[in-house]
Amino acid sequence: MKKDVIIIGAGAAGLMCALTAGKRNRSVLVIDHAEKIGKKIGISGGGRCNFTNLKVSHENYESHNPHFCKSALARFGPQDFIAMVEKHGIAYYEKEAGQLFCKGSSIEIIEMLRKECDAAGVDFRLHCRVEGAEKRGHFYVSTNQGVLESASMVIATGGLSYPKIGATDIGHRLARHFGLAITPLQPALVPFTFHQKDLHALKELSGITIDAEVSCGKRRFRGNILFTHRGLSGPAVLQISLYWNPGERIVINPLPDVDAHELFAEKRRSRAELHNVLSGHLPRRFVEKWCELFLQQEAVKPMHQYTDKALNDIARKLHHWEITPGGTEGYVTAEVTRGGIDTNELSSKTMESKNVPGLFFAGEVIDVTGQLGGYNLHWAWASGYAAGRYV
């Protein structure tokens, strides 16, 4: 079979690239090893698909080149995707902080993309496993369904996250085969695991959720954190994991809206015990364990028995609780893969390889990773649209 464009990957970026190229009267074939299209779209947003964010900016993305994503985001913004959603009559709502979700199901987004592809004349081959690819003038893609030929080829295979639904490293392997560099890969938007000593000390907190501020280096996020039987999860933790590297410390402030120094000063003459004072602002089980670990018997004294220096030291420890995660839960639970095709290898306008004409990339396979909140799906739309305009 011979086509103008072969797109490897029937996910968000591949589908957007396909319908965009098809509307330009290119003959397009999308191939995927899965039995159906858009599998990761289907599980996104808890099944409701957080399909974009009204506040999309290049600042919401992590990359070795933080400016690379600017061009694609400028040419395909949230309103562009919203227009398609409204055209298909899909009801949606804003949850918080600009996050847009389907009122119904993420299947509506998959069906919308399929309809757009069908209208643009896009062909599909599913259960089609790529075994290799060569460029001899045209591209020749070897698959379990034979050799396919095209003038342009797009790699939109996603990252390594969610191997249970079929994620593989085929995109990275193909990129290396064509001589492109790959930046280091690691799971992101993923729960942390504790070192064994911390796990032993904190395992009793499993199930507790607190509103906290979590920071790593200069990055800081506010939101819920959840203590699990393995470590830490919750939105604020997932966000900071995007910027964390193994061996680094994270800092948790479990009282972001309360100045512990002022709180202690107000209760300075009180006969109330310190852990009871803190329990007015934090879950008692958390307070008791934190005090046991850091204050031992100090927490059971009445407030008036503390020196000012001791109270200031306790307040500082509370607002600046340092933990060094043992690691993460890995790609099995990670929402995305940080790292990917080195952006120095690609045109930020077209997503085309600078050294292999006709070879394009789109979506998560590229070294552009978004924060939690619809940013990664929007990068898939924007980069897929950019590639689709030029294949």
What structural category arises from helix and sheet content? Answer: alpha+beta
Beginning-to-end CA distance, first to last residue: 18 Å
What does the average pLDDT come to? Answer: 96
Low-confidence parts: none
Radius of gyration: 25 Å
Strand content: 15-25%
Biggest sheet, open or closed, and with what strands and sense?
7 strands, mixed
Output the number of helix runs: 13
Q: Number of DSSP strands? A: 21
What does the overall shape look like? elongated
In terms of quaternary structure, the protein is single chain
Fraction in helix? 25-40%
If you had to describe this structure to a student in words, what would you say it looks like?
The chain has about 400 residues and is an alpha+beta fold. Helix content is about 30%, strand content about 25%. The chain has 13 helices and 21 strands. The strands form five sheets. Strands 1, 2, 7, 8, 9, 10 and 20 form a seven-stranded mixed beta sheet that branches. A seven-stranded antiparallel beta sheet has the order 17-16-13-14-15-12-18. A three-stranded antiparallel beta sheet has the order 3-6-5. β5 (about 90-95) and β6 form a beta hairpin. α1 packs parallel to α5 (about 105-120), α1 runs parallel beside α13 and α9 (about 260-265) packs antiparallel against α12. The longest helix has 16 residues, at about 375-390. The model has no long low-confidence stretch (mean pLDDT about 95).
